[in-house]
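[recover] target loaded
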């Protein structure tokens, strides 16, 4: 067996050893200069170091003496615009940079640690005990306040968003587990000995992750956990310290139909209905509620829906997440935006109503400080402002079906109004009761008969003062319930009193004496005599909070808070309703994130925030759930698992004081446990637009609040009146985790830069020691050594733009040459990177070989998608190559990563081809032994039909027909085993800049070189 470099001058028939300056046993990395065909770099998997040749391998220079202290390289990258600039990433996650072709080196970015802290917890009973999850690697523990860390080998966790420590015992710790793409389960893991040993106490099949675990601080033997997933989310409870777990409430699915205009029935077919939800999508049933279909073209957070009674396939939708109106002309199959009122200052469209092509839409402005009413007479093509004398805050609109010139509107706190000319002019209905009206309905057979549902009680000054017109609060003189007018709105009589808030009144379209009303506490009420008498019809709706209702024929639907839609049949003579189980508690939406907290003073009070659903509260231990979103906006994000959180914080001393943060739409505070809330962006709107991860309230001062965001850490000392950034010392503004320890230290977990502690004396952040222990055993990956594989991609059109792909943490990106790095994982799964490649004609298009196939970005890493249809599962893609003439033709090679990277008998890798830019792939393995790994594939730059393939044990294979067939290309090659250590990716095949020399790195025989005959 030879050591060093062998050279062939006759097409590979004979070889000579030429390795002056290099004595190696195995070479795992090769990098050829992009401009000088004489220059080649090599690094050893055996620890002998890194070498450079300037004469195609005749002589070599050892480079580790120039300040490159670590002998095990992980990646060699040459700047494509300046070949003297070379980067070497070593397998302990440090990057060294040389500006003189490797003669001297320095640590490139000492503060950038490829360390994203997705979960961080402090022991309440011992401020020195901290637990942190370094995303993709696992859980670390510190027992000295963060100055030293040890890797918890046995945790069995590499991806988690949540760690929870027992309130009184720092050794009892729980963690969630988020699955990898090839897994279909999540877990809760528990340690009773401070992290030394762990056990699985709950495994949830079909889950996308356990994203929250919370102790009951008053009774730590009770814990709650939240599971997310495409098939729905669930809250679990344990009442024995985590030994056993059960679903807390089978009906609670986080599917909220927030109010009456979000549930609509087809006027011609009662088996057809539409439901708009709070971020859970817009849905349609065509079988009376037995099954629901998500309308994928519709906005996901509708404030209202409206069906044109004369054209039932025409449906309008108003959006809670933006001030837009949408129209479908085909029963919801396709949607078109027909209005956008953001230029008028609108935050959202609260209500849309259509009648025979005439459309009304009411808007709300931020902070309830304004709002308008618009009308379109041409199916939404053009709009006219018809607000006139109307006040802001229009909640409902009704058009008389017998006389469409009669239009009514209700407002939350400003009474009700009527128009007799289609909305051109308005007058106040002086006889309207002093209530906050939600819904107004017109008897379809008698234009003079009207109904309104309303709330009573009061609204506090701290809430109403934000709108500018009720600084002293609002006290309604009349009570909640249903009111009726028999004279076109001149006078009104209460026909049903409820408590506290009657959200909906519905008149049966064929039997106007049949009325249905829904109150948040009193539930569903039915009258069969035009409102003279009422009967509660809540059998089957126990612990359900109804918010909306729709009826047609004998079919009735009820929308709820957190439990979806219930459907059944109503007896038109008695008003009795038979709810059918297979038509209830549907649809079940995908749940993307969840956070649970327990009231620190009352174990029966639970809070859950989720996407979808926002914030909800239970006062009976989870039996009944009520919406607590107040004026919190819906936020639609690109990646709801990484963004879009509705994070919240409860004041430990006064649980009525709460805060909730959103992704880009501000922060809100409440003094009544989020029954109502108000913006707390700051006088200069400092926190508006900030993407919030975490909120922390100082236990000794409720007005001092810290917020972790994508834009850094902010604090207020005056309850949100003013905010200031506190980012001095941070290497990045991406702050994912934040906590206050029991002794008052502020700790932040960042994306990419690890952990920081805030120095109050110097008013800046200090970076804490790294979470490392590289080389220790890693049980979750079958006992491999803990390592980070990295790949660096430099933009040839702008070398300051670089991408750093890591196994197992994903993508980081810099646009300033590494001064600042940002995690760039939107759309990314729990996955690592093995290779990165630009599209040859567009550097905005980036491909990533992962350990689950291939991902693609079309916007320079801003968003990612899986792009690997046709690939076998769990392939570790080591290399991607493009046809030089037709780049839509792509090639890639892999290792079979099944069984945690061990593969399976007979299949340890594959080679794939795509002819449509990676949209579809197919194998090209004729002539190959697939019981091995395939490490590198290259396309000949001159003869594009020729492909070169580095194999694990069969040397170099060649295809002369675009991959259709392969044959060995090893004449004279003394060693057919590629130079890999079995852990990191080996870049063992390289072409010189002129394409005339190809190099192959072997396991035990150094580097071999072959001249390509042209």
């Amino acid at each position: 067996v030879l050591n060093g470099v062998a050279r062939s001058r006759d097409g590979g028939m004979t070889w000579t050893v030429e390795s002056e300056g290099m004595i190696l046993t195995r070479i795992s990395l090769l990098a050829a200069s992009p401009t000088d065909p004489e220059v080649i770099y090599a690094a050893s998997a055996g620890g002998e170091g890194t070498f450079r040749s300037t004469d195609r391998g005749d002589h070599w220079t050892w480079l580790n003496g120039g300040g490159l202290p670590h002998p095990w390289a992980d990646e060699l990258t040459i700047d494509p615009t300046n070949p003297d600039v070379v980067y070497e990433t070593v397998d302990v996650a440090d990057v060294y940079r040389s500006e003189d072709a490797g003669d001297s080196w320095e640590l490139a970015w000492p503060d950038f640690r490829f360390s994203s802290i997705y979960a961080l917890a402090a022991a309440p009973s011992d401020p020195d005990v901290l637990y942190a999850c370094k995303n993709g690697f696992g859980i670390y523990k510190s027992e000295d306040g963060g100055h030293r860390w040890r890797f918890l080998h046995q945790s069995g966790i590499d991806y988690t968003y949540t760690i929870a420590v027992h309130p009184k015992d720092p050794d009892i710790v729980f963690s969630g587990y988020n699955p990898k793409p090839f897994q279909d389960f999540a877990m809760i893991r528990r340690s009773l000995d401070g992290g030394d040993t762990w056990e699985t106490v709950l495994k949830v099949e079909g889950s996308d992750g356990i994203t929250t675990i919370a102790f009951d601080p008053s009774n730590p033997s009770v814990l709650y956990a939240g599971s997310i997933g495409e098939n729905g989310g669930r809250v679990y409870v344990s009442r024995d310290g985590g030994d056993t777990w059960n679903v807390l409430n089978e009906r609670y699915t986080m599917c909220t139909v927030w109010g009456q205009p979000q549930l609509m029935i087809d006027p011609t077919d009662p088996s057809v209905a539409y439901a708009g939800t709070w971020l859970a999508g817009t849905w349609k049933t065509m079988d009376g509620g037995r099954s629901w279909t998500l309308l994928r073209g519709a906005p996901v957070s509708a404030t209202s829906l409206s069906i044109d009674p004369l054209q039932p396939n025409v449906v309008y939708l108003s959006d809670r997440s933006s001030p837009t109106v949408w129209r479908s002309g085909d029963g919801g199959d396709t949607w078109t935006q027909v209005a956008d009122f953001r230029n008028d200052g609108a935050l959202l469209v609260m209500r849309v109503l259509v009648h025979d092509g005439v459309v009304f839409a009411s808007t709300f402005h931020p902070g309830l400080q304004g709002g308008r009413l618009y009308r379109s007479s041409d199916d939404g093509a053009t709009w006219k402002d018809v607000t006139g004398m109307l006040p802001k805050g229009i909640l409902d609109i009704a058009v008389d079906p017998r006389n469409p010139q009669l239009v009514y509107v209700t407002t939350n706190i400003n009474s009700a109004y009527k128009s007799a000319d289609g909305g051109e002019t308005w007058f106040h209905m002086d006889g309207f009761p002093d209530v906050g009206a939600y819904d107004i309905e017109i008897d379809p057979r008698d234009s003079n008969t009207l109904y309104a549902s309303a709330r009573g009680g009061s609204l506090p000054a701290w809430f109403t003062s934000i709108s500018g017109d009720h600084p002293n609060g609002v006290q309604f003189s009349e009570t909640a319930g249903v009111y009726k007018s028999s004279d076109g709105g001149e006078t009104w009589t209460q026909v049903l009193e409820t408590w506290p808030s009657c959200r909906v009144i519905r008149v049966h379209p064929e039997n106007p004496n049949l009325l249905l009303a829904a109150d948040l506490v009193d539930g569903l009420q039915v009258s069969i005599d035009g409102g003279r008498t009422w009967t509660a019809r809540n059998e089957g709706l126990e612990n359900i909070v109804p918010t909306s209702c729709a009826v047609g024929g004998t079919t009735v639907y009820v929308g709820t808070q957190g439990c979806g839609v219930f459907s059944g049949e109503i007896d038109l003579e008695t008003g009795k309703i038979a709810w059918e189980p297979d038509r209830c508690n549907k649809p079940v939406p995908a749940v993307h994130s969840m956070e649970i907290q327990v009231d620190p003073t009352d174990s029966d009070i639970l809070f859950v925030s989720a996407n979808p659903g926002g914030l909800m509260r239970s006062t009976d231990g989870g039996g009944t759930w009520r919406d607590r979103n107040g004026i919190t906006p819906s936020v639609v994000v690109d990646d709801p698992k990484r963004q879009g959180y509705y994070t919240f914080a409860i004041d430990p001393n006064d649980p009525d004081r709460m805060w909730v943060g959103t992704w880009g739409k501000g922060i809100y505070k409440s003094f009544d446990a989020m029954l109502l809330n108000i913006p707390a962006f700051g006088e200069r709107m400092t926190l508006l637009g900030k993407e919030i991860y975490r909120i922390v309230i100082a236990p000794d001062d409720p007005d001092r609040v810290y917020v972790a965001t994508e834009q850094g850490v902010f604090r207020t000392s005056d309850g949100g009146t003013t905010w200031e950034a506190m980012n001095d010392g941070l290497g990045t503004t991406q702050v994912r985790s934040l906590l206050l320890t029991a002794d008052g230290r502020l700790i932040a977990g960042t994306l990419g830069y690890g952990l920081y502690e805030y120095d109050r004396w110097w008013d800046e952040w200090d970076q804490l020691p790294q979470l490392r222990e590289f080389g220790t055993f890693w049980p979750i990956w079958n006992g491999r050594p803990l390592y980070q594989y990295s790949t660096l991609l430099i933009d040839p059109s702008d070398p300051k733009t670089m991408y750093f792909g890591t196994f197992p943490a994903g993508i980081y990106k810099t646009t300033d040459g590494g001064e600042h790095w940002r995690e760039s994982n939107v759309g990314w799964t729990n996955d690592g990177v093995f290779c990165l490649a630009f599209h040859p004609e567009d550097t905005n298009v980036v491909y990533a070989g992962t350990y689950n196939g291939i991902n693609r970005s079309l916007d320079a890493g801003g968003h990612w998608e899986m792009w690997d249809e046709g690939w076998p599962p769990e392939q570790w893609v080591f290399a991607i190559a493009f046809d030089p003439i037709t780049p839509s033709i792509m090639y890639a090679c892999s290792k079979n990563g099944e069984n945690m990277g061990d593969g399976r008998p007979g299949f340890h890798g594959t080679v794939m081809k795509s002819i449509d830019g990676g949209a579809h792939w197919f194998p090209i393995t004729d002539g190959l032994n697939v019981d091995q790994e395939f490490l590198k594939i290259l396309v000949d730059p001159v003869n594009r039909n020729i492909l070169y393939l580095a194999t694990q044990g069969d040397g170099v294979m060649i295809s002369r027909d675009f991959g259709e067939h392969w044959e060995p290309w090893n004449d004279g090659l003394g060693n057919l085993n590629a130079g890999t250590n079995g852990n990191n990716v080996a870049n063992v095949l390289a072409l010189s800049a002129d394409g005339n020399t190809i190099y192959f790195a072997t396991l035990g025989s150094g580097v071999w070189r072959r001249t390509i005959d042209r």
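[recover] notes: The two ends are 30 Å apart (CA to CA).
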